[in-house]
Amino acid sequence: FEDKEPKLASAGVYFGLKLPTGQTDVRNGAGLLAERSLQPGTGTTDAIVGGYFAQLLPMQDLSWFAEGLVQAPMNSSDGYKPGTRVSLDTGVGYNATEHLSVMLQVNALFRGRDSGINAEPADSGGKFWFLSPGFSYAFTRDVVAYAYYQIPIYQYVNGVQLTARSASAIGVSVRF
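Above: the chain sequence. Below: its structure as tokens.
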């Protein structure tokens, strides 16, 4: 018995830091300082650790992937420390042409409660699941444009928080 199924796969890990960029002193229309969880920046340095696995499937031009990422603040800033974020993603992709791929992903995000004297732990953190269809177009091997439409399939937030009915992401990836 000879197994001729595709097995080409890749796996890897990544790590990095999110630096304390972004404003933490934005005021609302009345001139009052907005809540820390609503500020564009957190003021913290976060450690980022993750990994991925991708593999071709037996059906021609079909592949799948799985990815996980943890983002954890290593400090607090002005009495505020955002909750740890854990994201998990899995999906399938189909190469419709030499340049065009269509994809379907399931994304999960688990966000811990914020902490500190300027945090609102009761109104932070939650669990989110999304279905994300999308596509990518490879202009060259190193330049790829992509677009995704993210549809919430489950959202649970602690306390009172704003959630989106849907989201989209459009971008270009360039490899050097």
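The chain has no helices and eight strands.
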